[in-house]
Amino acid sequence: MKPKVVQIDPQNIDLEELKHAAEVINNRGLVAFPTETVYGLGADALDSKAATSIFEAKKRPLDDPLIVHIAEKDDLYRLVQEVPHEVEKLIERFWPGPLTVILKKTDLVPDIVTTGLDTVAVRMPSNPIARKFISLCGTPLAAPSANLFGRPSPTTAKHVVDDLNGSIDLVIDGGSSEIGVESTVIEFDEGKTIVLRPGGINLEDIKLFVGDIELAEETGHIERSPGKYPQHYSPKAEVVLVENSSDQVEEVLTAAYRLEQEGNKIGILSTREHEDSFRAFCVKVLGPQKDGKICASRLFHMLREFDVDEVNVIVAEGIPEDGLGYAVMNRLRKAVGPDLY
Ligand code: TXA
Ligand code: MG
User: Fold this and answer.
1) Domain 4-224 grouped into CATH 3.40.50.300
2) Is the beta carbon of 178 within 6 A of some atom in ligand 1?
3) Whose CA is nearest to atom 15 of ligand 1?
4) Could you read off the pLDDT of 53-110 as tens digits, one per residue?
5) What residues does each domain of the chain span?
6) Domain 238-336 in this protein, CATH class
7) What angle is formed at CA 41 by the lines to CA 155 and CA 27, rounded to 5 degrees?
8) Helix (H, G, I), strand (E, B) or coil at 58
9) Which ligand number lies closest to the CA of residue 32?
10) Could you give the C-alpha distances from 311 to 10, 148, 243, 257, in angstroms and in order?
11) pTM for the full predicted model
12) CB 152 near ligand 1, within 6 Å
Protein backbone atom coordinates (compact mmCIF):
# COMPACT_ATOMS: atom_id res chain seq x y z
CA MET A 1 0.00 0.00 0.00
CA LYS A 2 1.31 3.45 -0.90
CA PRO A 3 1.98 5.66 2.12
CA LYS A 4 -0.13 8.77 2.53
CA VAL A 5 1.73 11.84 1.25
CA VAL A 6 0.87 15.26 2.72
CA GLN A 7 2.16 18.41 1.14
CA ILE A 8 3.38 21.13 3.50
CA ASP A 9 4.53 24.57 2.39
CA PRO A 10 7.70 25.45 4.36
CA GLN A 11 6.77 29.15 4.12
CA ASN A 12 3.28 28.59 5.50
CA ILE A 13 3.27 25.46 7.64
CA ASP A 14 -0.09 23.74 8.10
CA LEU A 15 0.04 22.91 11.80
CA GLU A 16 -3.03 20.67 11.74
CA GLU A 17 -1.45 18.36 9.15
CA LEU A 18 1.80 18.28 11.11
CA LYS A 19 -0.10 17.42 14.29
CA HIS A 20 -1.62 14.41 12.53
CA ALA A 21 1.85 13.35 11.48
CA ALA A 22 3.05 13.73 15.08
CA GLU A 23 0.22 11.45 16.20
CA VAL A 24 1.51 8.77 13.85
CA ILE A 25 4.92 9.05 15.54
CA ASN A 26 3.33 8.93 19.01
CA ASN A 27 1.57 5.71 17.94
CA ARG A 28 4.98 4.20 17.11
CA GLY A 29 4.59 4.78 13.36
CA LEU A 30 7.14 5.78 10.72
CA VAL A 31 6.97 9.22 9.07
CA ALA A 32 9.35 10.45 6.38
CA PHE A 33 10.01 14.19 6.62
CA PRO A 34 12.08 16.80 4.78
CA THR A 35 15.32 18.17 6.20
CA GLU A 36 17.74 20.64 4.63
CA THR A 37 20.12 17.76 3.74
CA VAL A 38 17.98 14.81 2.60
CA TYR A 39 14.63 13.29 3.62
CA GLY A 40 14.71 11.42 6.94
CA LEU A 41 12.69 8.39 8.03
CA GLY A 42 11.54 9.30 11.53
CA ALA A 43 10.40 7.28 14.53
CA ASP A 44 10.28 8.03 18.26
CA ALA A 45 13.96 7.84 19.27
CA LEU A 46 13.13 7.00 22.87
CA ASP A 47 10.97 3.97 22.00
CA SER A 48 12.92 0.88 21.01
CA LYS A 49 10.00 -0.77 19.26
CA ALA A 50 9.39 2.26 17.04
CA ALA A 51 13.10 2.59 16.29
CA THR A 52 13.33 -1.09 15.35
CA SER A 53 10.76 -0.57 12.59
CA ILE A 54 13.15 1.86 10.89
CA PHE A 55 15.70 -0.91 10.37
CA GLU A 56 12.99 -3.19 8.98
CA ALA A 57 11.58 -0.62 6.55
CA LYS A 58 15.01 0.38 5.20
CA LYS A 59 16.40 -3.18 5.27
CA ARG A 60 19.25 -1.60 7.20
CA PRO A 61 21.87 -3.78 8.94
CA LEU A 62 21.48 -3.80 12.70
CA ASP A 63 25.04 -2.56 13.23
CA ASP A 64 24.48 0.80 11.53
CA PRO A 65 23.39 3.33 14.20
CA LEU A 66 20.76 6.06 13.71
CA ILE A 67 21.00 9.84 14.10
CA VAL A 68 18.72 11.39 16.73
CA HIS A 69 17.09 14.65 15.61
CA ILE A 70 16.13 17.36 18.10
CA ALA A 71 14.14 20.60 17.82
CA GLU A 72 16.04 22.70 20.38
CA LYS A 73 19.66 22.79 21.56
CA ASP A 74 18.57 22.15 25.14
CA ASP A 75 17.23 18.73 24.14
CA LEU A 76 20.84 17.58 23.65
CA TYR A 77 21.67 17.60 27.34
CA ARG A 78 19.36 14.77 28.33
CA LEU A 79 20.54 12.52 25.51
CA VAL A 80 24.27 12.80 26.22
CA GLN A 81 26.39 12.63 29.36
CA GLU A 82 28.69 15.54 28.70
CA VAL A 83 29.15 18.26 26.10
CA PRO A 84 32.84 19.24 25.86
CA HIS A 85 33.71 22.90 25.36
CA GLU A 86 34.80 22.49 21.71
CA VAL A 87 31.49 20.79 20.91
CA GLU A 88 29.60 23.69 22.53
CA LYS A 89 31.48 26.04 20.21
CA LEU A 90 30.61 23.98 17.15
CA ILE A 91 26.92 23.62 17.86
CA GLU A 92 26.70 27.29 18.82
CA ARG A 93 27.93 28.09 15.32
CA PHE A 94 26.40 25.34 13.16
CA TRP A 95 23.07 24.41 14.79
CA PRO A 96 20.46 24.36 13.54
CA GLY A 97 22.06 22.87 10.44
CA PRO A 98 23.79 19.92 8.77
CA LEU A 99 26.17 19.01 11.62
CA THR A 100 25.88 15.73 13.56
CA VAL A 101 27.88 15.29 16.76
CA ILE A 102 28.66 11.97 18.40
CA LEU A 103 28.86 11.96 22.21
CA LYS A 104 28.54 9.50 25.10
CA LYS A 105 24.85 8.62 25.48
CA THR A 106 22.63 8.57 28.56
CA ASP A 107 20.35 5.65 29.47
CA LEU A 108 17.42 7.52 27.95
CA VAL A 109 18.60 6.49 24.46
CA PRO A 110 17.65 2.87 23.68
CA ASP A 111 20.44 0.53 22.60
CA ILE A 112 18.74 -0.27 19.30
CA VAL A 113 19.13 3.39 18.21
CA THR A 114 22.91 3.30 18.72
CA THR A 115 23.14 -0.40 17.80
CA GLY A 116 24.74 -1.12 21.14
CA LEU A 117 27.39 1.65 21.02
CA ASP A 118 27.85 3.81 24.10
CA THR A 119 27.72 6.93 21.93
CA VAL A 120 24.81 8.62 20.19
CA ALA A 121 24.73 10.80 17.06
CA VAL A 122 22.63 13.96 17.47
CA ARG A 123 21.64 16.72 15.09
CA MET A 124 19.31 19.71 15.10
CA PRO A 125 18.07 20.30 11.55
CA SER A 126 17.38 23.80 10.22
CA ASN A 127 14.50 22.91 7.89
CA PRO A 128 11.45 24.70 9.39
CA ILE A 129 9.08 21.76 8.73
CA ALA A 130 11.50 19.34 10.41
CA ARG A 131 11.93 21.58 13.44
CA LYS A 132 8.21 22.16 13.91
CA PHE A 133 7.43 18.50 13.34
CA ILE A 134 9.97 17.27 15.92
CA SER A 135 8.72 19.75 18.47
CA LEU A 136 5.06 18.68 17.91
CA CYS A 137 6.11 15.05 18.40
CA GLY A 138 7.37 16.02 21.85
CA THR A 139 10.15 13.47 21.54
CA PRO A 140 13.43 13.34 19.61
CA LEU A 141 13.22 11.50 16.29
CA ALA A 142 15.59 8.77 15.23
CA ALA A 143 15.92 9.35 11.51
CA PRO A 144 18.27 7.89 8.97
CA SER A 145 17.98 8.93 5.35
CA ALA A 146 14.61 7.69 4.02
CA ASN A 147 15.98 5.37 1.30
CA LEU A 148 16.38 1.63 1.07
CA PHE A 149 19.77 0.70 2.52
CA GLY A 150 22.55 1.21 -0.03
CA ARG A 151 20.54 3.43 -2.41
CA PRO A 152 21.13 7.15 -3.07
CA SER A 153 19.58 9.26 -0.31
CA PRO A 154 16.20 10.82 -1.16
CA THR A 155 16.00 14.51 -1.89
CA THR A 156 12.29 14.55 -2.80
CA ALA A 157 9.16 12.92 -1.38
CA LYS A 158 8.87 10.95 -4.62
CA HIS A 159 12.28 9.32 -4.03
CA VAL A 160 11.01 8.21 -0.61
CA VAL A 161 7.86 6.68 -2.05
CA ASP A 162 9.88 4.97 -4.82
CA ASP A 163 12.06 3.22 -2.22
CA LEU A 164 9.82 2.67 0.79
CA ASN A 165 6.41 2.14 -0.72
CA GLY A 166 4.46 -0.25 1.48
CA SER A 167 6.63 -0.11 4.57
CA ILE A 168 6.00 3.35 6.05
CA ASP A 169 2.90 5.22 7.24
CA LEU A 170 3.26 8.77 6.02
CA VAL A 171 5.47 11.08 3.95
CA ILE A 172 5.60 14.81 4.57
CA ASP A 173 6.34 16.44 1.22
CA GLY A 174 8.11 19.74 1.79
CA GLY A 175 9.70 20.05 -1.67
CA SER A 176 13.29 19.36 -2.72
CA SER A 177 16.06 19.21 -0.13
CA GLU A 178 18.17 22.32 -0.29
CA ILE A 179 21.65 20.90 0.38
CA GLY A 180 21.25 17.45 -1.16
CA VAL A 181 24.01 15.56 0.71
CA GLU A 182 23.77 14.38 4.31
CA SER A 183 25.09 16.09 7.41
CA THR A 184 28.76 16.20 8.38
CA VAL A 185 29.27 13.63 11.16
CA ILE A 186 31.90 14.41 13.80
CA GLU A 187 33.28 12.41 16.68
CA PHE A 188 35.54 13.63 19.50
CA ASP A 189 38.28 11.55 20.98
CA GLU A 190 40.76 12.75 23.60
CA GLY A 191 40.77 16.30 22.30
CA LYS A 192 40.82 15.23 18.65
CA THR A 193 38.01 16.11 16.25
CA ILE A 194 37.39 13.27 13.82
CA VAL A 195 35.21 13.71 10.75
CA LEU A 196 33.46 10.38 10.21
CA ARG A 197 31.45 11.56 7.21
CA PRO A 198 32.04 14.72 5.17
CA GLY A 199 28.72 16.44 4.48
CA GLY A 200 26.67 19.61 4.36
CA ILE A 201 29.13 21.70 6.38
CA ASN A 202 32.48 22.39 4.71
CA LEU A 203 35.56 21.06 6.44
CA GLU A 204 37.20 24.46 5.88
CA ASP A 205 34.47 26.06 8.03
CA ILE A 206 34.78 23.48 10.80
CA LYS A 207 38.56 23.99 10.94
CA LEU A 208 38.00 27.64 11.82
CA PHE A 209 36.43 26.49 15.09
CA VAL A 210 38.38 23.45 16.18
CA GLY A 211 41.81 23.82 14.64
CA ASP A 212 43.02 20.44 13.51
CA ILE A 213 40.66 17.77 12.25
CA GLU A 214 41.24 14.17 11.36
CA LEU A 215 39.48 12.50 8.45
CA ALA A 216 38.35 8.99 9.33
CA GLU A 217 38.65 7.84 5.74
CA GLU A 218 42.33 8.84 5.72
CA THR A 219 43.34 7.74 9.21
CA GLY A 220 41.73 4.34 8.98
CA HIS A 221 39.00 4.83 11.59
CA ILE A 222 36.95 2.97 9.06
CA GLU A 223 35.18 0.70 11.53
CA ARG A 224 33.77 3.79 13.24
CA SER A 225 33.01 5.56 10.07
CA PRO A 226 29.48 6.02 8.77
CA GLY A 227 29.09 4.52 5.39
CA LYS A 228 31.76 2.05 6.57
CA TYR A 229 30.13 -0.22 4.04
CA PRO A 230 32.38 0.16 1.03
CA GLN A 231 29.51 0.44 -1.42
CA HIS A 232 26.67 2.86 -0.76
CA TYR A 233 24.58 5.58 -2.39
CA SER A 234 24.24 3.30 -5.41
CA PRO A 235 21.95 3.76 -8.36
CA LYS A 236 20.88 0.60 -10.20
CA ALA A 237 23.67 1.04 -12.73
CA GLU A 238 27.33 0.43 -12.05
CA VAL A 239 29.30 3.67 -11.60
CA VAL A 240 32.70 4.41 -13.15
CA LEU A 241 34.38 7.58 -11.88
CA VAL A 242 36.89 9.57 -13.92
CA GLU A 243 38.97 11.83 -11.71
CA ASN A 244 42.36 13.57 -11.68
CA SER A 245 42.66 13.20 -15.41
CA SER A 246 44.60 15.69 -17.53
CA ASP A 247 42.00 15.36 -20.28
CA GLN A 248 38.79 14.51 -18.53
CA VAL A 249 36.55 14.69 -21.62
CA GLU A 250 38.80 12.37 -23.57
CA GLU A 251 38.99 9.87 -20.73
CA VAL A 252 35.23 9.85 -20.14
CA LEU A 253 34.59 9.31 -23.86
CA THR A 254 37.15 6.50 -24.09
CA ALA A 255 35.57 4.71 -21.13
CA ALA A 256 32.05 5.28 -22.44
CA TYR A 257 32.75 3.94 -25.96
CA ARG A 258 34.61 0.92 -24.58
CA LEU A 259 31.81 0.05 -22.16
CA GLU A 260 29.20 0.61 -24.87
CA GLN A 261 31.00 -1.82 -27.15
CA GLU A 262 30.80 -4.38 -24.38
CA GLY A 263 27.02 -4.13 -24.72
CA ASN A 264 26.16 -1.63 -21.96
CA LYS A 265 23.70 1.24 -22.10
CA ILE A 266 25.79 4.21 -20.98
CA GLY A 267 24.82 7.27 -18.98
CA ILE A 268 27.24 10.14 -18.41
CA LEU A 269 27.14 12.33 -15.34
CA SER A 270 28.80 15.42 -16.73
CA THR A 271 29.91 18.79 -15.46
CA ARG A 272 28.03 21.73 -16.98
CA GLU A 273 31.15 22.73 -18.92
CA HIS A 274 31.48 19.40 -20.77
CA GLU A 275 27.90 18.33 -21.43
CA ASP A 276 28.05 19.12 -25.17
CA SER A 277 30.96 16.71 -25.67
CA PHE A 278 28.88 13.79 -24.43
CA ARG A 279 25.75 14.17 -26.57
CA ALA A 280 26.26 10.73 -28.15
CA PHE A 281 25.21 9.24 -24.80
CA CYS A 282 22.45 9.71 -22.26
CA VAL A 283 24.01 12.74 -20.54
CA LYS A 284 22.90 14.42 -17.32
CA VAL A 285 24.45 17.48 -15.75
CA LEU A 286 25.76 17.36 -12.19
CA GLY A 287 26.50 21.08 -12.11
CA PRO A 288 29.24 23.64 -12.80
CA GLN A 289 32.70 22.17 -12.13
CA LYS A 290 33.62 24.73 -9.49
CA ASP A 291 30.24 24.91 -7.75
CA GLY A 292 30.22 22.11 -5.20
CA LYS A 293 27.02 23.47 -3.71
CA ILE A 294 24.99 23.06 -6.90
CA CYS A 295 26.61 19.66 -7.59
CA ALA A 296 25.70 18.45 -4.07
CA SER A 297 22.10 19.55 -4.44
CA ARG A 298 21.73 17.63 -7.72
CA LEU A 299 23.86 14.52 -7.13
CA PHE A 300 21.39 11.99 -5.68
CA HIS A 301 18.56 13.22 -7.86
CA MET A 302 20.63 12.74 -11.02
CA LEU A 303 21.80 9.27 -9.93
CA ARG A 304 18.15 8.26 -9.49
CA GLU A 305 17.24 9.78 -12.88
CA PHE A 306 19.59 7.30 -14.52
CA ASP A 307 17.48 4.50 -12.98
CA VAL A 308 14.52 5.85 -14.92
CA ASP A 309 16.51 5.77 -18.17
CA GLU A 310 17.59 2.22 -17.41
CA VAL A 311 21.24 2.78 -18.22
CA ASN A 312 23.45 0.07 -16.78
CA VAL A 313 26.78 1.90 -16.53
CA ILE A 314 27.19 5.53 -15.46
CA VAL A 315 30.49 7.20 -16.28
CA ALA A 316 30.81 10.13 -13.87
CA GLU A 317 33.16 13.09 -14.07
CA GLY A 318 34.94 14.06 -10.86
CA ILE A 319 34.86 17.64 -9.54
CA PRO A 320 37.34 19.65 -7.41
CA GLU A 321 37.29 18.62 -3.76
CA ASP A 322 36.92 21.97 -2.07
CA GLY A 323 33.80 23.09 -0.20
CA LEU A 324 30.90 20.70 -0.75
CA GLY A 325 32.87 19.15 -3.64
CA TYR A 326 34.57 16.98 -1.03
CA ALA A 327 31.29 15.46 0.16
CA VAL A 328 30.17 14.97 -3.46
CA MET A 329 33.35 13.05 -4.32
CA ASN A 330 33.02 10.97 -1.13
CA ARG A 331 29.51 9.89 -2.22
CA LEU A 332 30.59 9.21 -5.81
CA ARG A 333 33.49 7.02 -4.68
CA LYS A 334 31.13 5.03 -2.48
CA ALA A 335 28.69 4.70 -5.36
CA VAL A 336 31.54 3.15 -7.38
CA GLY A 337 32.18 0.59 -4.67
CA PRO A 338 35.27 -1.05 -3.26
CA ASP A 339 37.14 -2.29 -6.32
CA LEU A 340 37.78 0.92 -8.13
CA TYR A 341 39.24 3.21 -5.48
O1 TXA B 1 21.73 14.61 6.96
C2 TXA B 1 21.62 13.58 7.60
O3 TXA B 1 22.45 13.23 8.46
C4 TXA B 1 20.40 12.68 7.30
C5 TXA B 1 19.13 13.46 7.66
C6 TXA B 1 17.90 12.63 7.55
O7 TXA B 1 19.27 14.01 8.93
N8 TXA B 1 20.51 11.45 8.01
C9 TXA B 1 21.38 10.48 7.68
O10 TXA B 1 21.29 9.35 8.47
O11 TXA B 1 22.17 10.57 6.78
P12 TXA B 1 21.95 7.96 8.06
O13 TXA B 1 21.48 7.00 9.08
O14 TXA B 1 21.65 7.65 6.67
O15 TXA B 1 23.47 8.19 8.32
C16 TXA B 1 23.94 8.36 9.63
C17 TXA B 1 25.31 7.86 9.76
C18 TXA B 1 25.31 6.33 9.68
O19 TXA B 1 26.07 5.89 8.59
C20 TXA B 1 25.89 5.86 10.98
O21 TXA B 1 26.87 4.88 10.78
C22 TXA B 1 26.49 7.12 11.61
O23 TXA B 1 25.79 8.20 11.07
N24 TXA B 1 26.33 7.07 13.05
C25 TXA B 1 25.21 7.19 13.77
N26 TXA B 1 25.45 7.03 15.09
C27 TXA B 1 26.78 6.82 15.21
C28 TXA B 1 27.65 6.55 16.31
N29 TXA B 1 27.20 6.50 17.55
N30 TXA B 1 28.95 6.36 16.05
C31 TXA B 1 29.43 6.42 14.77
N32 TXA B 1 28.66 6.65 13.69
C33 TXA B 1 27.36 6.84 13.90
MG1 MG C 1 21.82 7.01 4.79
Assistant:
1) no
2) no
3) 144
4) 999 999 999 999 999 999 999 999 999 999 999 999 999 999 999 999 999 999 999 9
5) 4-224, 238-336
6) alpha beta
7) 145
8) helix
9) 1
10) 35, 20, 21, 14
11) 0.95
12) no
